[in-house]
Amino acid sequence: MVRTLWALLAAAALAAGILSGMGAAGPARLERNIKVGIVDTYSGPPAVFGNDALNGFRLALSEINRDGIHGARIEFVTRDEKFSPEIGLSMARELVLQERVDLLVGTINSATALAISAFAREQRVPFIVWISKSEAITGARGHRYVFSTTENTAMAGKALAEAMVRKGYTRFWIGAEDYEYGHAVTNSFWRFMKRLRPEAQLLGQTWWRTGEPDLVPYLTQILQARPQAAFFGTGGAGMANVLRTMKVIGFAERVPSAIHTAIDVTVLRPLGTAAPEGVFGTTDYLFYYPDTPANRKFVQDFQAAYRDPPGFPAFHGYITAHFIAEAYRKAGSLDRERFINALEGLRIRTPVGEVEMRTCDHQAMLPLFFGVTRRDPRFPFLVAGDLVTIPGRDAMPTCEDIRRARERAQ
Amino acid sequence: MDPSAVLGQLLVGLSRAMILFIVSAGLSLVLGVLRVPNIFHGSLYMIGAFVAWTVAEVLRDRAAGLWVALLVAPAITATVGLVVERTLLSRLYHREHLMLILFTFGVMLILNDLVKLAWGPTYRSLVPPPELQGSTLVLGVALPRFHLVLFVAGPVVAAALWWFAHRTRVGKIARAAAVDREMVAVLGIDVSRVFALAFVVGCFLAGLGGALVAPTTSITLGMDHALLIESFLIVIIGGLGNLWGALAGSLLFGVTQSVGLLIWPQFAVAFPYALTVAILLVRPAGLLRSVW
Predict the structure, then answer these.
(1) Taking a contact as any Cβ pair under 8 Å apart, which residues of chain A between 92 and 111 contact chain B?
(2) Which domain holds residue A65?
(3) For residue A129, what is the DSSP state?
(4) Which of A289, A320, A391, B214 keeps 20 to 30 A from B104, CA to CA?
């Protein structure tokens, strides 16, 4: 009895001590607002993506700054890199050295992202990549100061390889646009395909220049080679050309085809009915799927603010802001190293469910959605049907893969 | 190699050659008659495509939308050409080539920014009318039905240009001026008018090429770059200022690319350029007689 009393007293004393200790330090307060420096493309064709991401980021800030983070708000400044790594790097330098931003965010251009990443490492400034999809960013060339809140070519290649193997396709022709992303996504697809099915056959490859206006000769040639299935490495306006040509010559009906982001709204919406049905694709965000309250709310709020439904960049911008806010909330300090420690392993609720920032490579564990293009009477453009969610854990390379890739790169 | 595959690739290569011909014929005409390397030719091609898209959007519910677009787009680029020629270019003819290149390069930058202002950075899609959608099987190859329009347009443009150059007075003067400008002026002919007309026709062809390509591709900023380079190469391998050289160059360029795909698909993009090098090694002045 006495012993219990003593124990209770001790516990009470301890609790009081903790409380008073906390009182002495006070609840964490940030001494000033958090300043985010955004470098992205705001001119030329890729500006569509840059602006969409920025809108998503702004929407999240309007939610975050309502309550603040330990008494502080998130502010941001933007710089237009004009899709050039040189300009992007000098912008990042200016933001860190002159504007004194707390962290950097950007960009759509993988080459710019990698250049800024090297600079961020040297300056020990956190840098969050939100659109560009090169797997090198958090893979071979990843480090403590770089994070990614977007899916990457490794995840896309792995998810598509698995999906196509499940459909029984192993004899492929690869058609791709001759630029960084085209090479990265096809390499990744084929690497995972060979890992899953060592007997898989690459029947041939066809490459075309970026901006090639007429793809009919290219796709006709692939049709004539009669492969079992095809994989295409392309994006943006080039992707639109591939899909349009496929529809016109009836490609997808004869050769099952897979393209990362082919089911994406930003791709299918501008094409209207010029897009073909039956093309397999993956993406990490769709405004109509998953049909959950969280996603519906995000879409509603976004449309109320910007009219159009959010594309995948908007989703990335939105979760980037929430990752930043949560990490500062957890760190309780503007210290960059503490911010990074807080961001590692952090889980936040997003429109597509809970997403974790993986500690080993700083890659957000985003789920991917695999589906096939089809018409839907609700929309004037094609959407994705037969959707399957591939959890981030399954689509991502393992931490062991990442460790090995980084060792090889050194 | 499967002979039907070769025939099929030849066919799709020919349709590509038609666009290349229409655009590079305009470039060649301006080069031949005015001696102006028109760097903004590609911009006019892009403007042609964007205008065609806008016209087709406005007349979306009319069956004739696309056909109207095919007339309006080149008319607008021809007007742009006329304004630029009368207000600025005509004052610079006596300057050296470098100045002319710098001038037309400057106009290109201005036009491309105006396109960005007018249409924004997103790419556009022009869906052809239902009767021209889909494809027709020709020689076992699914040939896009719209490409049949190109097969008509290419020869029509070639015939019209031949008629212009050989059967009209102004065409004959233009040809004469291309060979010896001073002599024509000495004969008391107002060369300036002829130059303006040739320039306008050249710009018209750039716009027509853009409008014709619009239903087959993504209409986007930057679509002018690739085509401008290809057109210059074609004009160079054909013989500067020679319309038939432009035709020969376009056919070779388009067909080498499409047939090259059967030989080595991974490096097919290099074939037309390898051909250019080969031709220039053998015939440094181009295939046909250059007017320069």
Answers:
(1) none
(2) 34-151+291-366
(3) E
(4) B214
